[in-house]
Amino acid sequence: MTATVALPPIAILGAGSMGGAILHGLVRSGVAGGVTVTNRTSAKAAALADLEGVRSIALEEQPSGNVDAAAAAEIVLVGVKPAMVPDLLREIAPVLRPGTIVVSLAAGVTLATFESLLGDDVAVIRSMPNTPSLVGKGVTGLAAGTRAGADAVAVVRRLFETVGIVVEVPEAQIDALSTISGSGPAYFFLVVEEFTKAAVGRGFSVEDARLMAEYTFIGSAALLAASDDDPAELRRRVTSPKGTTERAVAVLQEARLDETFTAATAAALARAKELAAGA
């Protein structure tokens, strides 16, 4: 059996919900060679301090924490709010060692922005994880910058594979990817919400309605994951000719769900472009 190769030292600057999810994935995987994380407050830092192999810094106690963490890392994940990214990059740029890989977790901040503020010997990769990363079932899109070679992409891919699967795309597709995997969990939760309401409308208690709706979707997702067949084939197997499911599916198809989802993702993409333009 081949031994697991540890990742190089990692810094996560701004270990909020997404940075924290990635941190927990790294700890669970056992491939992290050492991780330093920063948060603004002592309370947030303390919540991560007991994780194995993790050094957690509170910036209110150690104002140089971002610089200290970046200087010691070979991979730096930038997880602060998008508006804070330029100032943070200017702060850490002087201490980044040649060959450091900087990974953006910030929505809407372009590779060009990162590369313009960092040295020519720093590789930049833009990432777009989603919230199921919290339970190790995430989808992360990766787009490599002009200075990120195959080796840099491979090591960052390994990092994100600790919290799910990875899809490599050109940067031009990152916003489109965000409308599918990034926003997708919200679409799913909305459908579960409405399905639950339908069950309540059929006379079930809220508790039973939630149980039936949620576990129907959880079980269906598990069946899909375990099957080699595509969703359309699995749907056909549930849909007996002239049966109750066929009648229900016909109503859903008449509602033009295909057009609705296309319009929804188009609206999300338009908003992503507005945010990238500072609107």
Based on Cα principal axes, name the global outline.
elongated
Q: Please provide the count of β strands.
A: 8
The residue fraction in helices comes out at 40-55%
Name of the CATH homologous superfamily of the largest domain? NAD(P)-binding Rossmann-like Domain
- In the CATH hierarchy, what is the architecture of the largest domain at level 2? 3-Layer(aba) Sandwich
Largest sheet: 8 strands, mixed
Care to describe what's here?
GO terms for molecular function: pyrroline-5-carboxylate reductase activity. Residues 171-275 form the Pyrroline-5-carboxylate reductase dimerisation domain. It comes from Microbacterium insulae. Keywords: Amino-acid biosynthesis, Cytoplasm, NADP, Oxidoreductase, Proline biosynthesis. There is one protein chain. The protein has helices at 17-29, 42-48, 65-71, 85-92, 111-117, 150-160, 174-182, 184-201, 206-226, 231-238, 244-254, 257-276; strands spanning 10-13, 35-39, 54-58, 75-78, 101-104, 123-128, 138-144, 164-168. The chain is an alpha/beta fold and 279 residues long. It has two domains: 10-172, NAD(P)-binding Rossmann-like Domain (Rossmann fold), CATH 3.40.50; 184-276, ProC C-terminal domain-like fold, CATH 1.10.3730.10. The protein has an eight-stranded mixed β-sheet, sandwiched between helices. α7 (174-182) packs across α12 (257-276) and α8 packs across α9. The radius of gyration is 22 Å and the shape is elongated.
